[in-house]
# Entry
Amino acid sequence: MNLYYDAGAPVQVGAYGLRDSGWECPTAWTLRASEAGSSWVTLDERNLTKTRDGTCASAWRNFTIDATEETQGRFRYFSFYFTQAFPDRTQETGDGIRLNEAGVWGISTRYL
# Structure
């Protein structure tokens, strides 16, 4: 499943966050970015295990993007590509991914 976001203007991203719905939370994904929406750069990849009690947390999870030459560009378009979710205890199959919110945060630039 892909979730696309258009920031409206190029931004330099330093972190992002996801807030799941409490069930069928994403546990594996790739965050990609693009300047024009055609060529994509991988900013971050995650493959997490379930939470301690075996359920989703229904809370913000924040992640920092490692600063490399490739990830420190300015991007307008973002794609969350979700590949795995953890199902709720009451469900036999975890065939969906549910999110309440997703966000990307820019790096503050200070001019001297």
Q: What stands out?
A: The longest strand covers residues 75-86. The chain has one domain: 2-104.
